[in-house]
Amino acid sequence: MSAADPARNDARAAALDRRNRAIILLALLLVTAIAWIWLLEIRRDMVGMDMAGMPDMVMPMSEPWTPGVFALTFAMWWVMMIGMMVPSAAPMVLTFATLNRNKRAHGQTFVPTAVFVLGYLIVWGGFSIAATLAQWALDRAALLTMMLATASSILGGTLLIVAGLYQFTPLKQACLRNCRSPFAFVLNHWRDGWPGALRMGIEHGGYCLGCCWVLMALLFVVGAMNLLWVAGIAAFAFAE
User: Fold this and answer.
1) Using the 8-state DSSP alphabet, how is residue 46 labeled?
2) Please, which residues have CB within 8 angstroms of residue 125's CB and are 6 or more apart in sequence?
3) How does pLDDT run across 4-44, given as a tens digit for each residue?
4) Are 28 and 86 contacting, i.e. CB atoms less than 8 angstroms apart?
5) pLDDT for the residue numbered 53
6) Which stretches of the chain drop beneath a pLDDT of 70?
7) CA 213 to CA 163: how far, in whole Å?
8) What's residue 98's pLDDT?
9) What does each C-alpha distance from 110 to 54, 103, 198, 199, 238 come to in angstroms?
10) Handedness of CA 44, 46, 50, 53 (dihedral sign)
11) Could you tell me if 149 and 224 are in contact, meaning their C-beta atoms sit under 8 angstroms apart?
């Protein structure tokens, strides 16, 4: 083997790694775009042209909360969480994919990145169930506007105060430390195999949700269908 062979192999591996990262990044961007397009369609359906001038009107759901309506509401929140949180999760997903590909190159167990991402989806799904139950309770109490914002100034003010105070709690700081550094998380939490990858996704998704769940709750203050605020909260979570 010539001296140039190892360098050629390293260059080929680096190119393959860049290609894989680009594919994963494009897939995440595509998922995010689809989620936002779906949210725009939901908003257009919920706020008809004839009601566009009355976004603060208190308006209970016209349909009873059947299992089908609950499932559709859950799907709305879940897709919203995907659209908001995928950009923030992208650095960790890319880090996992890179390290996992290196393990495969050394003959170790390979786990598809989708298994790791599934852990995030489970965590976001759990929050979406909680948000759906909160929406159901507010709707039953006739405290929701057409934009899915609370009509209670007391509740809205309380959520704002809680969100502000939570930023300074030890729990917030602990979650932020684990969510900010992908390599530090990998060093302390790496687990092999499919169950290990799924557990890692759940753990990291839980830390990231711990950073911003109160911000998500503020959607009941500004309106879950106010997509400008949804985008603003998503940008703040990404910046953190």
Assistant:
1) H
2) 74, 78
3) 555 555 566 566 677 888 888 899 999 999 999 999 988 88
4) yes
5) 47
6) 1-16, 47-63, 104-107
7) 9
8) 87
9) 54, 7, 13, 15, 29
10) negative
11) yes
Q: What is the pTM of this model?
A: 0.84
Q: Quick one: which of 212, 208, 216 has its CA closest to 177?
A: 208
**Buried b vs exposed e over 160-197: b needs ≥16 C-beta within 10 Å?**
eeebeebeeeeebeebbebbeebeebbeeeeeeeeebb
Report the chain's C-alpha Rg in angstroms: 21
pLDDT of residue 169: 94
Residue 151 has which token pair? Answer: 């009509």
Distance CA(120)–CA(31), nearest Å, equals 14
| N-term to C-term CA, the chain | 49
DSSP label at residue 150? B
Task: Tell me which residue of 228, 217, 233, 219 sits closest to 40, measured CA to CA.
Answer: 228
